[in-house]
Amino acid sequence: MMPSSVYTRDRCVTGIHGLDEILRGGIPYGSTVLAAGTCGSGKTTLAMEFLVRGALAGEACAHFTATEPSVKLLENIRQYSFFDMNMVDTGLINVFDVDVLYSWLGLDKATFDLDDVHALIKAIVDIVNTIGVTRLVIDSVTTLCYKIKSEQLIRDFLFTLGKKLATLGCTTVLISEITSATENAHWSSFGVEEAIADGIIVMGDVERMGHLLRFLQVVKMRGTPHSRAKHSIELTQLGVMLTPMLKWGAVSDQKTRWGA
Amino acid sequence: MADITFSSEDEEFFGKVGGFGVPKFDAVMGGGVPRGFMIVAFTQTGSGSELFAKQFTSPAEEPENTILISTNEAQQEIIRVYEKYGWPLDIGVRTVGEEYNASVLERDLLASRYRLEGFQLPDIQRLAQTRFVDTENRDFLTEVTNEVMALDPYFRAVVDSMDFFVQREDPSRVISMMRMLQAHTQMVRGLLLVTISSDGLPPGLRQEVAGIADMVLEFKVRTIGTDFETSMTVTKFRNAPENLRILVFRVTPEECITPETVERIA
Question: How high is the pLDDT of residue A247?
C-alpha cells in the first residue's frame, strides 16, 4: 500500500529574507503570530516588511498602530527601500491609528469592559472583512491589552479576535513588548497572549564583544515544522536579513573562546 | 486685580441699582437689585424661573454688554419668547445645550452607530486617512466662566441653569466658578443671575452656593385645588434683611411675570 501524501497547510509567504526558510515555507495561513521583542529589536520593521511583501504580491494589508502615531511610523519606515508610500496611498497597506479608532468607537476611556472589547473586535473584523485584508499587524497588542483589566477578558479578546481573523483567512502578527528575551523570560506582558497565539517569534539582543546584536528565534509555530535556532537580524536598507547565529559568544556571561 | 475706575457719567446712567425686569418687584425691593450683586435662584420645575431668567435681561441697559446663557433652551425658543414680550433681541444669547448636542452627543451617537452597525467601506477609507484624534473636548464650564468674566463694567448676565454643570462637573469646580463670577460681578458692578434646580441638589452644595450669593431667590410651584400657584421667596438679601419677602406671581401677556401678593417674612 502506498503511503498517503503528507498534508501541508497553505503558507503565507512572509517574503522576509531567511524567515520563510526557518518556517519551512512561511506562516500557515490564518495563524495568529505573537512577535515578542524588547525595545529596538526590530519588531515594527519586521512587521512592516511582512505587510509590504504581501502588498507587493497584491494582498490587502492593514496595520494598527498604538505605540506611535502613524505619521511617525510611516516617516521612519520610508528610509527602507522596500517600502513605497504609494502602497499606503493606493490602499494596499492601510495604516490605522488606534487612538483614532478608539475615539470613533467612543473608547477614549481608561479601562475597557466586555462591551468595549466586543466593539473593538467587531471593528477590527469589520475592517478585515470589508477590505479583504489577508495580512494584519497590531502594534502592539500590549498597548491594546493595557486597557483591559481582567486577565480573563484579555484571553477572550485575543482568542475571539484570533478565531474570527483565522476564519477570514487573515494572517495576523501581534506585536508584544517584553523587557527581556532571555530563556527564562515571558514572551508576553500579560502571560496569556503566548498561550493563545499559534506562533511565537521572539526578538531581542545579545551582547557580544561589547556590541548588541539583534536576534530572532521562532519558539512555536503551529502547523509547520520550523527551526528553533537563534538567528541574527540585520535591518538593512533592503529589509530584514536573517542569518543563523553562531553558537559561540551568544550570551555575554558565558565563557567563550573569544572571551576566555 | 487691577482697580477699575468708573466714570461719573456711567455712575449716573446706571445708578446704584438695576431693574429686575419686573417693575413691581423692583418697587418692593427698594428700586431694584444693587449693582455688583450675584443672584442665585433655586428653582422647581414649572415654577416660572426660565421665564424670569429671560425677563431679567429685558432692561438691557447696554445690549452688547448683556448676555443670556441658556443650557436647556434652543435659540429659536428663546427668540420666540423675546418677540412675544417685546424684549430686546440685540442682546447676546448663547445656548450651551445646543452646542453640547452638536459637539458631544453627535459624536456619541456616531460611536453608537459604529458599534452597533459596524464600519462601511467609506468609513474605513476615512478612518485609514485620519491621522489625529479630534481632541476638541470642550470645557463648557470654563468657557462660560470666561465669557462672563470678559464682560465690561455694568454688565447684565444670566446663566440658566447651573444644573448642566452640576450634573457633569466636580462640584468643587462649579463652586470655584461661582466664586470667580461673584468676585467679577462685584468688581465691575455687574448684575448676574444664576439659576439652579433645588430638586436633588445636595444640601451641602446648596448651602455653599447660597453662601456665595448676594441675593437668594426660591421659585416654587404648588397646586391649590385645580390651580397652580407660583411664588418666589427672597430668602437672602445681603445687608438688607428687610427685603426678605414672599411674592406670589402670575404670568400676564403684557408684563410676563408680575407679583400679585407680597408678604414680608417676619
Answer: 61
